[in-house]
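Problem: given the chain below (159 residues), write out its structure.
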Amino acid sequence: MDDLPYTVEKIPERIAVGIERRTCNADGRSLQDIPACWQEYLSTKAVARTPNRAKPTVMYAIYSDYETDWTGEYSYLLGCSVTKADKLPKGLVARHIPAQTYAHFRAQGPMPDAVVGVWAGIWGSDMPRTYLCDFEVYDARFTDKKNPEVDIYVGIRDV
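Solution.
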């Protein structure tokens, strides 16, 4: 992990509401499922339909319910931060990002290649992952035309 710098942070619980898919990296399904999730999320105007959005609105991609490790099935939710998640519109689900210790990576450059490149480095590492929950943060920096940026948080065991 020497070539992939990160910081370690304790993050409090957060809640996001969005559209979720069950997918897998090992069989290549995630290469279709994740872009399809983005397409559905944006085309159905899910952000506008989400009640109790936190201000400013931040989008999250949440990886959770891991079957085993990064090679097994997991749930992928694309959504936005909310202050509470009750009475959700049809088709939207809530996901809690648990309070835990996270390795914080920063993906910079052309998207989605920059994000995929950071994940490839994480998958190839021996980082003590919890496989409880990982997430990406898409805020105003993501839309920067010159140098887009995404934060990636990977749940790790306290060592």
